[in-house]
TrEMBL record:
This is Guanine permease. Keywords: Cell membrane, Membrane, Transmembrane, Transmembrane helix, Transport. GO terms for cellular component: plasma membrane. It comes from Rubrobacter xylanophilus. The keyword Cytoplasm does not apply. It is a multi-pass membrane protein.
Length: 452
């Protein structure tokens, strides 16, 4: 094991790697609760137990593959933001079936894989200005936080003002507010696994007060595999030009998030070379891209590298053994689907209109708000004093959550970036690829009334 993972060479040992893997798992295990909650939103048709199984298996397979093939302390699981695209844009927005939505994820993962194998990934990455990369991350953070507020019933629809404050006389809404306060405190105190701790505390309090039901059993070895393979079978149904912008938006989100995560984790662990590159970069990117396709095939949404891996690296993790430990822990979580179903499930409350009923997920909703905060901290890297960079970034951040569509937000950013650069007489600062993408988005916006 020492020779295979190069433990001694990287200044670590078996005990350190196991502790690092456990630490990483604790900081990202919230996805076990949150991913089923998002993908099983009312109207998607995805079963919460099936998504739970797919989430654990996809994360386990990808993390173990990263450890064995790339020997890098990077764990993977279903990506927040990407799962929101599947649930709210592809299924609820465009009206795709969940099988077709997962097929889009498979295609996106295969596209990234081709770019990795042909060494084109860096070329595509260089085409997008840094200001827009950061803006996309910030916009997705706000989108995730908004979904959290909505799922907790803290904000609800209003016929006059579009949105208004929820009804805090309702137990589930109060529970969501309590959970948000607890989770924020835990994260602010710097406790590892603070988000997971917030979910567990909120769920237990909800059970004590009868706001959410008690699980019928603690463990269940009857696994729900109903989502497995659905995305693969539906691939022929999604080979259409109207979905190209959505595939590109998914590709963008997955693509740049991974690059930033790989570098950040490598920097934390001192694993980068003189040019800032981690060892076996192509292997790392190949595992990540195949994991995205695999997540779609299993029904777990796109699987991507987790920045939470840095917590394990901070504990001394330096090799792929850390990732293998994370993967094994995801497999150990599989029998606990009854608990996950209760924690991530929805409960009905009266809606803002007479006789209306809405469903909220008070236990997992606070975690989304906090994750949204963490994702949008990169707003500080946007050059706000340069209007030709800042205005497109602002439009991306503004429109992405308000249109409830990640690809639309990216489209506004790209189009405005090209137009402003041309207006200022700086066409050379725009990569040729960006012109083509901006034109594509413009055509999609123009055709939207006819498509819908």
């Amino acid at each position: 094991m020492d020779a295979f993972f190069r433990l001694s060479e990287r200044g670590t040992n078996l005990r350190t790697e196991v502790v690092a893997g456990l630490t990483t798992f604790m900081t990202m295990a919230y996805i076990i609760f949150v991913n089923p909650s998002i993908l099983s939103t009312e109207g998607t048709g995805l079963p919460i137990s099936g998504v739970f199984f797919a989430t654990c298996v996809a994360a386990a397979a990808a993390s173990i593959a990263m450890g064995l093939f790339a020997n890098y302390p990077l764990a993977l699981a279903s990506g927040l933001g990407l799962n929101a695209v599947v649930a709210f844009t592809l299924i609820l927005g465009l009206g795709l079936s969940w099988q077709q939505a997962m097929a889009v994820i498979v295609l996106e993962g295969l596209l990234v894989t081709v770019l990795v194998l042909t060494n084109l990934r860096e070329a595509v990455m260089n085409a997008i200005p840094m200001s827009l990369k950061f803006a996309i991350a910030v916009g997705i953070g706000l989108f995730i936080a908004f979904i959290g507020l909505k799922n907790g019933g803290i904000v609800v629809q209003d016929p006059a003002t579009y949105l208004t404050l929820g009804d805090f006389t309702q137990g589930p809404v109060l529970l969501a507010a309590f959970g948000l306060a607890v989770t924020l405190v835990l994260v602010a105190l710097g406790l590892r696994g603070g988000i997971l701790g917030g979910i567990l505390i909120t769920g237990i309090v909800g059970m004590v007060f009868g706001i959410i039901p008690l699980p019928e059993r603690v463990v269940d070895f009857r696994f729900d595999t109903s989502t497995v393979g659905g995305g693969l079978l539906a691939i022929p149904e999604v080979l259409q030009l109207t979905l190209v912008p959505v595939v590109f938006a998914l590709f963008m989100t997955d693509f740049f998030d991974t690059m930033g995560t790989v570098i950040a984790v490598g920097q934390e662990g001192g694993l980068l070379d003189e040019e800032g590159r981690p060892p076996h970069l192509k292997r790392i990117l190949l595992v990540d891209s195949l994991a995205a396709a695999g997540g779609g095939a299993l029904g777990a949404s796109s699987v991507t590298s987790y920045i939470e891996s840095g917590s394990g690296v901070a504990e001394g993790g330096r090799t792929g053994l850390t990732s293998v430990v994370v993967g094994l822990l995801f497999l150990l979580a599989l029998p606990f689907s009854p608990i996950i179903g209760v924690f991530g499930g929805s409960v009905p409350i009266p809606g803002p209109e007479q006789g209306q009923q809405i469903f909220v997920s008070p236990v997992t909703a606070p975690a989304l708000v906090v994750v949204g905060f963490l994702m949008m901290t990169s707003v500080r890297y946007i050059p706000w004093d340069r209007f030709d960079e800042a205005i497109p970034a602002f439009l991306t951040i503004l429109t992405l959550p308000l249109t409830f569509n990640i690809s639309y937000g990216i489209g506004f950013g790209f189009i405005s970036y090209v137009l402003i650069k041309l207006a200022r007489g700086k066409p050379g600062e725009v990569h040729p690829l960006l012109y083509g993408v901006a034109i594509l988005f413009a055509l999609v916006f123009a055709a939207e009334p006819f498509i819908s």
